[in-house]
Design a protein that fits this description.
The complex is a heterodimer of chains A (about 290) and B (about 325).
Chain A lengths: L3 H30 L6 H19 L3 H22 L9 H23 L15 E4 L2 E4 H23 L1 H11 L1 H6 L4 H27 L5 H16 L4 H21 L6 H13 L9
Antiparallel strand pairs in A: 1-2
Helix pairs in contact in A: 1-5, 1-6, 1-8, 1-9, 1-10, 2-3, 2-4, 2-8, 2-9, 3-8, 5-6, 6-8, 9-10, 9-11
Chain B lengths: L1 H4 L8 H8 L4 H9 L2 H5 L4 H23 L8 H17 L4 H23 L4 H21 L1 H4 L24 H22 L2 H11 L11 H27 L9 H14 L4 H21 L4 H15 L3 H15 L1
Helix pairs in contact in B: 5-10, 5-12, 5-13, 5-14, 6-7, 6-12, 7-12, 10-12, 11-12, 13-14, 13-16
Classes of the chains: A mainly alpha (about 290), B mainly alpha (about 325).
Chain lengths: ~290, ~325
């Protein structure tokens, strides 16, 4: 028999995996372009609503909607990148913050208009419900599934970054953008593709999140805070850093809510401020 | 800045240049006379008018650090909320004299501002944005969990105010409230005006343009940032205290991220880096919110979002920046 602390640890890890899928795209695009994209979770929310609509209105199976959530969020991000983001690559932080907060506000209002402000219900398939018993611990099947998905995503990302030509271009651009341009790498194009991929992953994260944290129009801002915390704690442009930070934040959030509920979200904000004061570039940041 | 490059005043001696900046213009006098209009034309809207004065003061305080020193803050509501809660607590448990309450609220905000300025001055860019956001959220969370002190999400009730100067009671129609808020705004505006048109104000603008080079000409960037951040926190605290005193309640909303985002929108809408930017922006923002939320409250933020996208894309220096460009073009013809 294992003590309940392992159950808390497991839930925290599963939650951290969810946060990782949500935030890894932002980490890479921020590292590439230093573009402060506060609308990142709006793409996640879009993915969530795509899944909810397909499952509830068109009775698709849950798993089949996940790729579509990814594609929809990626497509939306490509459109916005072309029309709006592209103009502000070299603008000040303030302009980028304002533009993307504006987009997030619009997305929240549109979600409220089309879907109402209530939490969206979701029907996960039979085999993902319930729990597996392991040495007296009830491990949620959905959470196991979540961890598996996140690990697959991590492996694909690391393999893609380390062993493909495109991955090498991304790494070069993150390390030194001007030098990469000098070598003939089209950094703007690299950025556009990475941006679409990252937003797509956020969309997938949004769809996966419904069963754990629910989905309503405030999602775009509630989880933006978590995502930004993970990105800045983990260090820009670092996948391993995001992974570690997501685990740290996920576990401390769940453990905080379980053992000291009166503190609320206080604990993770504290973790963030302390880490940033200790290492301004994040745990794994190089700048 | 391109505006500064075409400024004909640049040929002047430094003292004469600063003096020419601080000369009162006709439009300014007209603006301040126009703030009295609500008493004559819209006596039913005095409550809204005093809210606008509070928002304008808050936007002015953000302008000092964002518009002049170039520090982006996503957590400025922390000081607004601190001022509101501490002046509210003071008038509930000690006494209800308005001006001392104001001073108490502002002092608490300024002390916290000074303490956090040591952190703020070390960082720039994304880290700065995240630190201000994090500190703001920390305080908001603290106000929420200290239910016994602040009333938490139920709001803080039971503020009883004595008459202003022992003469004017805070009435139901907001006559005293508006005069009080406007008076406080005007006095602090004079202070801010003096500040930005001083050598200190000029070095703040230098820090905004290049904070690495400023120490080379003898202006220590970090010390300047600490000073202006504390002053800005003080002013934000006053704004919060005025809101607490005139509405006689404090809600969690006054320390929330929402308020930090709102004040940023107001300032940018009017034009950051201009004294009147926050003032004009808050007038437009608050009146628009009042009108729009009468129609469809939940979609108000849709229009704010559209507005932000449009301002960033087409009016990078806000409404006042756009206006002054038009005027400059018209004059050069």
């Amino acid at each position: 028999m294992l003590p309940p602390v392992f159950g808390v640890l497991f839930d925290g890890l599963a939650y951290g995996m969810l946060l990782f899928v949500l935030s890894v795209g932002l980490s890479v695009t921020l590292g590439l372009m230093n573009f402060v994209n506060l609308a990142h979770c709006a793409f996640a929310m879009l993915g969530g609503y795509v899944t909810v609509t397909l499952v509830n209105q068109f009775h698709w199976p849950f798993l089949a909607t996940l790729p579509l959530a990814l594609v929809a969020a990626a497509a939306a991000s490509v459109v916005l990148e072309r029309i709006l983001y592209r103009r502000l690559y070299r603008a000040s932080d303030l302009d980028q913050v304002l533009l993307t907060i504006g987009i997030a506000f619009i997305s929240v209002a549109m979600a409220a208009y089309f879907f109402g402000t209530l939490q969206q219900p979701i029907q996960t398939p039979e085999f993902l419900r319930g729990a597996v018993d392991l040495l007296g611990l009830g491990l949620g099947k959905y959470r196991l599934f979540l961890i598996a998905v996140a690990l697959v995503v991590t492996l694909l990302l690391i393999a893609g970054l380390d062993y493909t030509r495109f991955g090498a271009q991304v790494r070069a651009a993150v390390d030194n953008q001007r030098m990469a341009r000098g070598l003939g790498i089209d950094v703007d194009r690299t950025f556009a593709i990475t941006f679409a991929l990252g937003s797509g992953l956020a969309g997938l994260g949004g769809a996966l999140a419904i069963d754990i944290v629910g989905l309503d129009p405030s999602f775009a801002f509630t989880y933006l805070v978590y995502v930004l915390i993970i990105v800045s704690v983990g260090g820009l442009g670092s996948i391993a850093g995001s992974f570690a930070a997501a685990c740290l934040i996920g576990v401390s959030d769940i453990a905080g809510k379980y053992y000291v509920p009166e503190l609320g979200a206080f604990l993770i904000y504290l973790v963030m401020v302390v880490v940033l004061m200790w290492k301004p570039a994040g745990l794994f940041g190089r700048r | 800045m391109s505006v500064a490059a075409t400024d004909p005043k640049l040929g002047l001696k430094p003292q004469a240049y600063l003096r020419s900046l601080s000369r009162w213009r006709v439009t300014e006098i007209v603006f301040w006379l126009a703030t009295l209009i609500p008493y004559i034309l819209f006596p039913d809207y005095l409550a809204l008018a005093s809210q606008i004065a509070v928002a304008a003061l808050f936007a002015l305080s953000l302008d000092l650090i964002l518009g002049y020193a170039g520090l982006v803050s996503l957590g400025h509501a922390a000081f607004f909320g601190l001022g509101a809660y501490s002046s509210g607590l003071f008038s509930k448990f000690v006494w209800g004299e308005p001006f001392t309450g104001l001073l108490v609220g502002a002092t608490v905000a300024a002390i916290v501002g000074y303490a956090s300025s040591f952190i703020i001055a070390r960082f720039r860019h994304l880290t700065l944005i995240m630190i201000t956001l994090g500190l703001g959220l920390l305080l908001a969370e603290a106000a929420n969990s200290a239910h016994w002190l602040t009333g938490g999400s139920d709001g803080f009730q039971g503020i009883e105010m004595w008459p202003v100067l022992g003469l004017f009671n805070f009435d139901l129609y907001g006559k005293t409230a508006y005069a009080y808020a406007l008076g406080v705004l005007f006095v602090l505006f004079l202070g801010a005006r003096r500040l930005v048109n001083s050598p200190f104000g000029l070095s703040l603008r230098g820090i905004r343009e290049n904070w690495v080079r400023m120490p080379a000409i003898g202006a220590e960037s970090r010390a300047h940032i600490r000073t202006v951040y504390t002053i800005s926190a003080f002013m934000a605290g006053v704004a919060g205290a005025v809101l607490a005193q005139t509405t006689q309640t404090v809600s969690l909303e006054s320390i929330s991220f929402q308020r930090s985002a709102d004040v940023l929108v107001m300032l940018v809408l009017g034009g950051a880096g201009r004294l009147y930017g926050g003032l004009v922006g808050s007038v437009i923002f608050m009146i628009a919110r009042d009108q729009f939320s009468g129609i469809a409250p939940q979609y108000w933020y849709f229009w704010i979002g559209v507005l932000l996208v449009l301002v960033v894309t087409f009016l990078p220096n806000g409404i006042l920046g756009g206006l002054s460009k038009i005027i400059a073009r018209w004059r050069s013809k």
